[in-house]
Structures are given as structure tokens and as C-alpha cells.
């Protein structure tokens, strides 16, 4: 049996998708990953075959920098980073305006590339990133059975009266003006309609007999998989989803880093892990405030600086671990608290490790995901553009002393996600095999 995984050339997308494929590899099956060159080393590390496929202009091997992106994508990234400094609505507005170019890049040519690749690989099963719209167009128009995986918060798939790009929920610490929200809602509706026109235009070229979509952001594959814990999702919203399976999480295995192991073993002082992911690590001003806040606590801190230079963080205690990139899964496993932007990998991996979260969301589905974590009592959320060091320190202190009831519930959630449950659930959903305990 051959599994084909189709992923954008972004490490943050490929890590969970490749982790799902590990269940096929463990069963002795062939796994082929189609992605771009920036993530080739990741594919090799998982032990999979690789096929070249370019699904967009940009790429991200793990830490993204605007100056390393192709012309056009570099300015788009700078614009996005600037928008995050203005706040929630400005960022969502910027992302809405860029959506067609981001998510439906060269749709017809890319779709035909995908169809040729499928003909060459001859997979028995296909898994594709839900946000790889051009690839999903290829599979839909050719009648190729496939599973699409929502890697972000489940609101990345619109249901009911939701409008893609307009947050279904956001934490109480954000208080946007009503008029700004109304304008954002109108914009997202306009983008939805334009995007759907482009989807349908490409679809009719690929399959003249295909039925047009009413809203391309509600389209799904034959099998819908959500890389998210069902325990954090509103059950009323869940009833609006098409047939689906919640995977919980897709936590990757990491190569042992001896220096990190020695650092973790060097003290019994609680560890706080800090990372803003591959994109938002550019916000050195917020990282520096987090450093200032944590300097006032009796903790050791591991910071993945990403695209921020360590000199921008201010004074850092010698007992802290500061690197551009750190083994996140391992450090979460040894952490008492994590400080994050609220990306889906960070949230699901922290929940799997049973680690409470101090969340500072900047964009897209991070707002809905942060609200869900806070509502569950597993974290606190602050506005990254507003929260000062004192407020950050107080929130971290509260989470380091998480109350027993919340601690017990988080431990139960962790137990349900641990041990590769997500990849086994994906295998069962696609093959019909019973999920192994």
C-alpha cells in the first residue's frame, strides 16, 4: 500500500502531516511526501520518499525570514509583520486581502502538476493539507479519493453562518471596535465570494462537468480529519461539521539533543518554554517583554528565538537556554509552563504534554484557539501588543500554580493524546482498520 502526503513547503505544516504518515510506515507501508525543497530534510528524517511539488511562492524550513523569500513574498511578509503591531483587526484585514494569492496560487497549473504526480506515484491513499486548495482542486476534479487535514483550529473550515477569516471567537482581552469588526466581516465576505469565483473558474477548466461551489471555504475531501482535541471544541459547532474524525494531536518524534538533555537534568527549578513559532518570532519586542517578566520568577527558561537576535532580548540569566531553534516536543515534555503565540502545533503539543499555556495570539485561528484553551482553564490569554512585563509575570505565576481541578483535567486530556494516538486515528479513518490502543 502507498500513502501520498501532499504538503505546502512549510515545516509547521509538514511536521504534523508527516507524523500522521508514521502510522503507515510502522505498518510496513510505503509513504511518499510531495512538497517543496525547503522541507526536503524533514521528509528524509522521517524516512519517507519525496516528490517535488511547489504549492505556493513561499517556503519555510523552520524559521522564516522575509529576506529569504522570493520577490513579492518578501514584501507580503513584511506587511504581515507590520500589521501584527497594529492589532487583531488590522492583522486579520491584511490576511484577508492577501488570501487569494496565498491559498489559491496558480490553481490550474498546480492542479495539473498534482494530477501528474498522482498518476506517477499511484497511491492507494492520499492525505492533503486542508489549506492546499490548488492540490484539493486537483484531487476533487479528477475524482481521486482523499483525506484533507485541518491543521489549525477547526474554524479553519467554515460551518453554518461563519465567514472564513472572521474569527468565530476571540479572547476577552481583545476589545475591537464594533465598526472595525463590521468592516472586517464585510471584507471577509467579499474575499470569500472572490475566492469561490476563482475556485469555480479553475474547477470548470479541470472538470467541465463539475458542480460549482457555493463557498469554497466549506469544501472538504472525502475524509475530513481535524488535528485538534475534541475536548477543546464546541460540541454544538461539531454537529455542523461534515462527517469527520478528531485526531487530537500529531506530535512528532525528535532526535535526542544531548545538550538539551543535560540542561533539563541540571536543576529541579521549574522550566518555562517560550516560542512564537517560525513566523511570529520576528516580534522581538514581545519576546523581550516576556524575558523581562520571567526574569522575576524562580524558573529556568528555554527560549526558541527564531528570527529574533538574542541581543534584542535584553539581559538573560546564564542558567537559561537560548537558541534559534529548540526541540519543542522534548522541552514541552519537561516544562511546567509554555509561553506561545497559540499556533496549532504549539497548542496541541502542549496539551499532549499536559503543559498549561500563556498565550499571546497575533493572527488567524490563533484567537479562536486561545479562547478555547482559556475557557477550558488550561491557560491564560493576553494581548501581545498591550500586556506589560508585570501583567505577563502575574499570569505566568498563576499558571505555574494551576489549581488541582484544572491540573487533573489537563492530565486526563494529556493521557488521551499521548503515545501517537493521532496517527493511529488517521490510519483507522483512512484504512477502516480499528484504532489500536
UniProtKB/TrEMBL annotation:
Thylakoid among keywords: no
Signal sequence, start to end: none
Keyword Hydrolase: no
PROSITE patterns the record matches: UDPGT (PS00375)
GO terms for MF: UDP-glycosyltransferase activity
Sorted UniProt keywords: Glycosyltransferase, Transferase
GO biological process, one term: antibiotic biosynthetic process
Pfam entry (one): UDPGT
UniProt record similarity statement: Belongs to the UDP-glycosyltransferase family.
PANTHER family: STEROL 3-BETA-GLUCOSYLTRANSFERASE (PTHR48050), STEROL 3-BETA-GLUCOSYLTRANSFERASE UGT80A2 (PTHR48050:SF13)
The protein's name in its UniProt record: Glycosyltransferase
